[in-house]
Structure prediction request, 155 residues.
Amino acid sequence: MSEEVHDPSIQVPQAIVYSIPIGLISGLVFLLPIVFTLPDIQTLLDAIPFNRIFARISRSKAGEADDPSAIPLNAHLLSTAIQLLLGLIYLGSSVAFNAFVGVAVICLGASYAMPIAILLFDGKNRQQVAHARFSLGRWGWAINAVALIWVSLEI
Prediction:
């Protein structure tokens, strides 16, 4: 998608940087009402309204199907198969299930860490990036080092 942006070498990094404060603000707007209106935690744990949530979701336009029975059969079968497979993994070993679910965090962190590490440890690339149109200047090395340490601790 970055190819379709006007002046992507400037606009895309700016969009990435601006997504952090925008995400913070929108996250606070979303979470504050939830935090102040939540009932007692034990009440939530005792009576989670799965049936009501499922009924609301299934009555939405997204839950409808074009066939005469109005049952989204393909979506239901796919969801059931995925849940069955994850349930079988959990029945076999809860450690394996947690490892399977946690691999997403590890892969995401690795996808950030690899280019940062290449940039930090390859002087040739560092010189090319220093003269790029969007540069962090003299702070670039320190920011990348902190980012690499952070991602390493996350993984």
Notes: The chain has two domains: 16-92, 93-155. The first helix runs from residue 8 to 37. DSSP finds seven helices and no strands in the chain.
